[in-house]
Structure formats: C-alpha cells, structure tokens
Amino acid sequence: MALVVQRQALMRHIQGLARFAAVSAALLPGACGHSSTRESSPASPAAVDGSDGASSPTSIAAAELIAGRWLTALRDQDHGVLTTLTAFPFGFQTPSSKQRCRSGAETPDELRSITTCIVADGLLLEELRRADDFHLVALPQGSVPVWARAVQSESNRDRVPVKAFINGDGVTYVFVLLVKRDRVETCIEHVELEQG
Questions:
Q1: What CATH number does the domain containing 64 carry?
Q2: How many domains does the chain have?
Q3: In the prediction, which pLDDT does 159 show?
Q4: Strand runs (DSSP E) across 24-98, as ranges?
Q5: Secondary structure (H, E, C), 169-196
Q6: pTM above 0.85, yes or no
C-alpha cells in the first residue's frame, strides 16, 4: 500500500515537472531549446479563443498548470498558495447543496471561508485526496458546459476556461476554473451523480 502511495506521489511530481517545462517553453522564448519564434499552436491563446492572442496572455499550458496547482492547494488547504493563485475579486458557483458557501471573495480571509466550505464536503475532500490526475483541459470559449455558461460572456474573452474532473465512487466532481494571466478568477463546481 505504501509503495502505491509513493508511486502516485512520484507520478504527480513527474506530471507537474512536465507541465512546468511546457509552461516554461511557452512563456520563455528560447527556453528548453526552442527557437524564439512562436507560431500559433495548441499552446497559444489563439488556439483557445480564436483571437490573435493579444488580449489573452495566458497560454493553454499555463492555464492548465495554474488550475492544477489551485486544485492541489484546495485539496491540501494550503491557504498561502490559494491566495497567491487567486485573483480578487474571486467568484464561486456551486450546486444548490452547497449554497451555504459564499459566492465571492474580496479578501484572502473571505477566500479561506469559501475554500474551507468547499472541502467541508467530506466526499469531495476524499476524492480530491485520492485523485492522481484532475484531467485538466483548457476549453475553447464556445464549448464550456451548459452549467458553466456564465463564464462565456464577452468580458471573459481574455480568460482561459479550464475544465477539471474527478471521478469518485458514485459521483463525479467537475470544475470549470477561469484563469487570467497567472491566477484563478472564478471556480464553478458541478456534481454529477451516477445512476443505478
């Protein structure tokens, strides 16, 4: 059992290093042996929203890395990292069962209240701790799930929506995080219960 846990931790570390290398290559021209000429590629903002990339400095790789770090900090309840990776004002939307959680935060203390409330759901916290991977994927602006369409406004064109999901035992938690530059600005949680 201990070997399995160590193996999972090592795999998360390796995945994190691979994402860091991808982000470094995307953000630092000439880094990691790449040329300084950047073409439109799946890692460029233009691939996310169809624009020329000028209004969206966040690459897909960077947005996915930031979303993953934010969810990891949520799992670990690392409020220092959460504060660093969160843009204020911060917005949170959730299913009706968690309406007791605040819907927004202007300060780190208000953010702590929200994140503490989110993981007060013992099943979610258990699934976050068990997850080896958050299955992160940046979404094109027009393809966010119906339940997260609030993030699809014209004012959000310079943000990258990143979808994450955690398959649990009888339940799947799905998140859409809006990333702008190097911070998560909005988190929308959705819960899907398995039928049967």
A1: 3.10.450.50
A2: 1
A3: 86
A4: 86-93
A5: CCEEEEEEEEEECCEEEEEEEEEEECCC
A6: no
